[in-house]
Amino acid sequence: MNIQQKEKGFTIIEVVLVLAIAGLIFMMVFIALPALQRSQRDTQRKNDLSRLQTALTSYQSNNRGALPSGTGAETTSWPSFVSRYIRTSGDTFTDPTGADYVVSTTASLPTEFDPANPNIVATVGSTCNGESLTSGQGSRKVAFQMKLEGNGIACSNN
């Protein structure tokens, strides 16, 4: 009689197949993870624009509808507005990358995202129309625009 004894274990093909599938799963995760992180940072930037818009509404309520103006150290300037209405009680107003936001009425919207220089452009007399602006909307309207990391533009207005 010829009795064949079977050994327990996996064949080399089964092991290679499992490793290949695991490699594909890891590759998919590592490709999707940066896009997910970029999306989360852009969501935070949009939330920061909403926070800026809420602070502007509060400023206008306290100043008879007036808007901040100027760029210097005067109390009605945009930097003073950010200090007094957003950075209160130790709050920060920084980009998710850690750089401080700069609110400007004179800068133009950058063509590419720059994590070292997160500019927010305030355009007086305009409202948002998707990613673009509609001008001639009144002297008390302000549209805030910011270039996003995911190649879009966030826009928020009062």
Task: Please describe what this structure looks like.
With 158 residues, the chain is of the alpha+beta class. It has one domain. Helices cover 37% and strands 18% of the residues. It is elongated, with a radius of gyration of 26 Å. The mean pLDDT is 85.
Largest sheet strand order: 1-2-5-6
Task: Give average pLDDT, whole number.
Answer: 85
Given the structure, what is the number of helices? 2
- Give the domain tally: 1
Structural class: alpha+beta
Radius of gyration: 26 Å
**What multimeric state do the chains show?**
single chain
Number-wise, the strands total: 6
Low-confidence stretches: none
Form type: elongated
Helix content: 25-40%
H/E element sequence: HHEEEEEE
Span between N and C termini? Answer: 92 Å
Q: How much strand content do the residues show?
A: 15-25%
Largest sheet: 4 strands, mixed
